[in-house]
Amino acid sequence: MSKHERVITLDGPMNFRDLGGYQTQDGRAIKWGTIYRADDLSRLSHHDRQKLSALNITVDCDLRSSFEQMTAPDRHWSGVKYVDAHVYAENGEDDEQLDVPGVHEFNDMLGNIYQHVLLNVHSQLAFKQVLHELLNLPAGDALVFHCSAGKDRTGMVSALIMAVLGVDDNTIIKDYLLTNQLYSFAMSDQLKTNDELSQMIANMNVTKGDGPVMKGFLQTIHDGWGSAENLFTQRFGFTAKDIEDFRNKFLV
Q1: How far apart, in whole angstroms, are the C-alpha atoms of residue 37 and residue 151?
Q2: Which of 37, 98, 132, 139 is exposed most, by the fewest CB atoms within 10 A?
Q3: Could you tell me if 176 and 159 are in contact, meaning their C-beta atoms sit under 8 angstroms apart?
Q4: Nearest to 197 by CA among 107, 99, 106, 120
């Protein structure tokens, strides 16, 4: 495998990608082979798991709901730590929406869902969990975070990481839209259930990524907190030194 391969070719997952190589506005770039984003990892073959182990991916952050995790559990590989970081509140968890001055709702349904997720107390805890796993990741190790399609929940986490590392909005949007070229948006691929949350997820998983939706997500960060740095310190428990360490760890 090439050292600088954006898409990691696997037997099962279709949308497994390296965030490495993206340029930041201060002239640096995200390190290759340290942060990966993906779709469903329940379809990993034996060869896939060997490959992920060889990539030294030691942390697997699962952003999916409890129903998705139970129905299609991740297939683990040697040496990996599994982290349940389900993004959507469920089973009586805190579903409070923050009232953040300066934030305005969008006309687009998916755009509003993304915004509501960013402003949701439980979702912020899930984001924080992934970000702190990255902050504490041992040198030389790598981490993957994923949902079912690798588009919505995974796209939001990717955007947060890239934004705080200093990647510009247009590049973040282009990375988000890569899913449209890789993932099959067939309804037949979605888990069958009558649960309202699961139905919403299934419907989102058959909807292609839309640039304005991610643009709105990033705009909510700008309008609500002024910058990704402020969001990280005010809601994710990062200090200024944490942000500096985060950048030094994942940028070259």
Answers
A1: 9
A2: 139
A3: yes
A4: 120
For residue 2, with 0-12 CB atoms within 10 Å meaning exposed, 13-18 middle and 19 or more buried, which class applies?
A: exposed
Find out whether 152 and 68 touch, Cβ atoms under 8 Å: no
Sheet holding 35-38, edge to edge: 17-18, 35-38, 142-146, 57-62, 81-84
Q: What band does 4 get if pLDDT is binned at 50, 70 and 90?
A: confident
Q: At what angle do helices 211-225 and 109-118 cross, to 10 degrees?
A: 40
Closest C-alpha to 83, from 17, 144, 157:
144
Residues 6+ apart with CB under 8 A from 145: 36, 37, 38, 60, 61, 62, 63, 85, 130, 154, 157
Burial class (CB in 10 A: 0-12, 13-18, 19+), 121: middle
Asked whether 237 and 125 are in contact (CB, 8 A), the reply is no
pLDDT digits (tens, 9 = 90+) for 178-231: 998 887 654 456 556 556 666 665 665 556 557 789 999 999 999 999 999 999
Structure tokens at 76: 């683990």
Give the bridge partners for 82, in sequence order.
60
Q: What is the identity of the amino acid at 60?
A: D
Q: Is 27 left (phi over 0), alpha (psi -120 to 50) or beta?
A: left
CA atoms within 13 A on the CB side of 150: 26
pLDDT of residue 195: 65
pLDDT in tens, 72-123: 999 999 999 999 999 999 988 888 999 999 998 888 888 899 999 999 999 9
pLDDT of residue 60: 98
